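>> Question from a student workshop board

For tomorrow's exercise we were told to take the sequence and the ligand below, predict the bound structure, and bring the output to class. My setup keeps failing. Could a helper post the expected result so I can at least see what it should look like? The ligand is magnesium ion.
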Amino acid sequence: MHPITVYAHRGFSAVAPENTMVAFRKAAEAGAHGLELDVHFTRDDQIVVIHDETVKRTTDGKGKVRELTLEEIRRLDAGSWFDGEFRGEKIPLLSEVLELVADRGLSVNIELKNNKTAYPGLEEAVLEWIGRFGLVDRTVISSFNHYSLRKIRDLRPEVDAAILYMANLFEPWNYARNVGATSIHSYWPTTVEDMVKRSKEAGVPVRPFTVNQTKEMRRMIHLEVDAIITDKVDRLLKEIRDAKE
Ligand code: G3P
Ligand code: MG
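>> Workshop helper replied:
Here is what the output should look like for this input. Compare the format with yours to find the bug.
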């Protein structure tokens, strides 16, 4: 059967607080092949792993990530909101997650959250870190900001850069090539047979997000997408195993 890479969305976020080290470790332990994570710059230009522009939803603090220093951010509890057993989890630095990725031989999908907030220099800084950890061949950089992806490819043409989008784009494989990107991270409802087939023919891998329903997992496996991004790592791995039998 066609091999499908399983990316744990914000780590194994079905069972642990999203974008924390415990969620990333649990993803690796469950057998995920890769980790998906979101990055922002702090006030002092450190790259931290968090989804939202603000710390409100996933920590005990408040304010914009961009307006807090790393020291302020590291004092926050990023685990209790999910469950008391995760109290004391911190917002990780990108470098901490990349260390885990390198140690465990995983792949990584770094999503640049520079669509709402401009983070000048984020592309250069992320490329610097993946180079330092020797992860260029195992990294996909994605973003809803496609100008940023063009910049990534201009800086490092060997890096896989994936367009993220929600709309039902017309011929996204052509659009991706026009951007200078190399792959497609499509919203699952727009990931349909003709689109997957024609993207593959064009040599553009398709990796839908965020696929959590069993029925949709089965549909994606049947479509032979290249990878699937999910919160439910264990469920998806089981569906892939079952499809092989
Ligand atoms: O990278 C796929 C997915 O994470 C994009 O949306 O909002 O979950 O970061 P979001
Ligand atoms: Mg994301």
